[in-house]
Specification:
Blueprint: H1 2-20, E1 39-40, E2 43-44, H2 45-53, H3 68-76, H4 78-97, E3 106-110, H5 120-123, H6 137-146, H7 153-165, E4 168-176, H8 180-190, E5 197-201, H9 209-222, E6 226-232, E7 246-249
Parallel strand pairs: 3-4, 3-6, 4-5, 6-7
Antiparallel strand pairs: 1-2
Helix pairs in contact: 4-7
Bound molecules: 2-acetamido-2-deoxy-beta-D-glucopyranose (3 copies) and magnesium ion (MG).
One 2-acetamido-2-deoxy-beta-D-glucopyranose is lined by residues 98, 228, 245.
Keywords: Glycoprotein, Signal, Storage protein
Function: May function as somatic storage protein during early seedling development.
GO molecular function: acid phosphatase activity; nutrient reservoir activity
Length: 258
């Protein structure tokens, strides 16, 4: 059955190649699998998520409503966890190849939200619906203030490995200074017990994440730190200046930060 269908598609490609010189029918090979097939303006939710992860699709404000179930199943199911584990394994393999100077200045920069701590209990709420509702700063901050975000298992595994290898950890987050104490207790509760620096955003700083994070990384390097690795869920964690020797992107189809 599959073979026959593929043959027909290939035959169509060959025929159309003959006619116009370029295969026009390759989209017939498109897969439809479960909820990933829900459409948003002709785009499957899987294609939408892929475009988001590759930073081809930018400056979006909400997850398309039609993709609520797709994103929800992805985040709550095993695929999200597996994808995070895969990033952690690649990062650990890289970290093991690095010869540390031993002067305490080889650092690994971690973002916090959706990188080391997960806000999934918040995003799974009906009033948030995996990012299909407009971002509510008041409600999100109230959740942050609870200090109950769990660790992302792959990232915690990587963190422990890095600490055992002798890396110094720097958390660099867009969370406001106001929440310093609750973030400290949340990180510790989740299993992140030690770090060199915890950098939060001043309450009066209105710069974008990419500008704010670049400037803090520049300050770290000016102080003699070497950013060996840098991990985040947003491209704004990984683009800009002083990004480090290697960057690692963990998935996040729920929100976009410039
Ligand atoms: C945002 O969240 C707050 C606190 O939960 C709530 O009172 C408010 O109505 C929400 N705003 C919108 C626009 O939903
Ligand atoms: C924010 O506040 C600090 C401390 O009061 C001050 O030094 C800094 O210039 C302020 N930054 C902005 C952008 O207003
Ligand atoms: C990191 O990059 C700098 C600058 O390119 C280079 O000198 C250094 O050897 C690199 N370190 C590692 C561990 O790759
Ligand atoms: Mg983040």
């Amino acid at each position: 059955m599959g073979g026959v269908a593929l043959f027909i598609v290939l035959a169509t490609i060959v025929a159309s190649s003959h006619a116009e010189g370029i295969p026009q029918q390759i989209h017939h090979l498109r897969l439809y699998t479960g909820a990933a097939g829900s459409k948003i303006e002709g785009l499957s939710c899987l294609s939408w998520r892929f475009a988001v992860e590759t930073d081809n699709f930018r400056d979006w404000s909400v997850v398309p409503e039609k993709c609520e179930h797709y994103v929800g199943y992805y985040m709550m199911g095993e695929q999200y966890r597996k994808d995070c584990d895969a990033v952690a394994f690649v990062a650990m393999a890289y970290a093991e190849t690095v010869a540390l100077a031993g002067d305490g200045r080889d650092i690994w920069v971690f973002d916090i939200d959706e990188t080391t701590l997960s806000n999934l209990p918040y995003f799974a709420r009906p009033d948030v619906a995996f990012g299909t509702k407009p971002f509510n700063n008041t409600a999100f901050n109230a959740w942050v203030a609870e200090g109950k975000a769990p660790a992302i298992p792959g990232s915690l595994m990587l963190y422990k490995k890095l600490v055992s290898l002798g890396f110094k950890i720097v958390f660099l987050t867009g969370t406001r200074e106001t929440y310093r104490q609750v973030r400290i207790s949340n990180l510790k509760k989740a299993g992140y017990h030690t770090w060199k620096k915890l950098i939060l955003k001043p309450d009066n700083d209105s710069s974008t994440a990419v500008v704010y994070k670049s400037s803090r990384r520049a300050e770290l390097e000016a102080a003699g730190y070497r950013i060996i690795g840098n991990m985040g869920d947003q491209w704004s964690d990984l683009l800009g200046t002083n990004v480090g020797n290697r960057t690692f992107k963990v998935p996040d189809p729920m929100y976009y930060i410039a």
